[in-house]
Fold each of these.
Amino acid sequence: MIKLFIKEIVERFTQENFDKIQKFFNEDPFIKGQFKHFEITFTQAETNFKFPHQLGFQPKDVIQTSLTGAGSLTWNYSSINWDATNLDITVTDACVVRAYIGRYAENRL
């Protein structure tokens, strides 16, 4: 979380604007979480493909931003398939997926 020194701002309208900015930062999931953007390319169908994410922790969340190509994709969520090292993904054909992968944290400091 980004902590701004709002009380030190003398001018009232500037203080209100910075207060709105602070509230935005406190509500933004990318700031409150630990996310990294990935682009993963598949050249063929894959079942239970292990993708090494290198995050250093077990991700819990995926925000998929695009999927292009002939294949469809399944994120195989589970504590067995997702760990601190790999994601487990199944695709039906060649495709490219882009996604933010990580972990949302409600009370992250």
Amino acid sequence: MIYWDRGMNVFGASITSSGDGVLSLLKVACSDPGIPDLAGRLVNVFNRLEIGENHKIVLAARFDGAICMELELPKLPHHEMRKALDFELPRHIPVPIDEVIWTFRTVSEGGAGKGAAQSKVRILSVSRKVWDTTISSVAASGIKADVMTHPVMALRNLPSDPEELLDNHDEMGKALSSLSGSDAGPGKFAGLDVISGLPDEQKTGLLVCLLVGEFILQENVSSENLNLSHLPDSMRPQRFRAIRYSAAALFMLVLVLAGTLIFRSWLDARDRYGKIIAEKQRTLAKIDEFKQERLRNKKTDELVKKIRDSNPGNPEVILCLQLLSQKLPSNMWITMFNSRDNEMDVTICTMKDKDAQADLSKLSSLPNFSSFSIRSTRRDGDGTLTIFVHIVYQDKLKRQKNG
């Protein structure tokens, strides 16, 4: 708790709560009156409290011109109550509503009986100009805070003059006793001996810190409900940086490892995909080879059948075909023939036609053939080149004479 009064005197107290509800006053600090500005005094108190990352920091200020009131309104949920107050407040605040910031909390709700449907709501409004000036002073000090409020928001009962109460040491002790529900005054706190020898002015300021701190810790209320307005992000504390940085570093490491794993998986998948494509191409080539072999076999079967059906009285045809098949390149095969006298028409097929005609032209020089000519060619749908050849061959008697 850090609080400053209308004279810009700053007071601070570090308070903790044990499990049995006993509050402990760990450390207190009062600003040096020799420091001229509010920002410097805030820094002075803040540093002396030795605030750690696990502390929740609440600022309480005596805003100039602050207006605090209580209204009886129907029982409503929190967000509905804020909407209702948007319509109700212009009738109770003597300045335009857009020139102030305000907050509220429900002080009490009616029980069974006549007032069961009513709630008592405390509203605090502050001029935007005053709020902005205070925020500037706090921001200039460089300290961080979770909440900024006014001490009157922590009072159980709103007195007729709350500003006078906050400056009165005796009344503050009574208010603290009333808030804790104990007749023993602030004896609910352990460690109060640290303020026993201080002047009354400092005691009063520290009692305000205890008042607000006890309200937050004992009444089980969220300090956000006391916040006048959301503080800028630059003024909010950055807690557990080491843990966050470690978490960020761990997250980055996980991202790097995940990226590496994904990249490695992508490379493996790409390699497997390449192997599959290569195997597919090899399989397709093998299938194509089988198809060609099947086509050759089919053509050969047809040729054999043709030879069987030929006239057995003309053996020169068989000799000519035998010679021709021996001289043909390995990528060519005979599919059909037709003979008459010493002439023969032959159909030759090939899949590699780049040098086919040149290879066939060489056969014209064979002594067995009087004439060897290519009549025409045809490209089939499966890519096969069909060559139609006319051959005039010499019979046995002519070959003997030539020999």
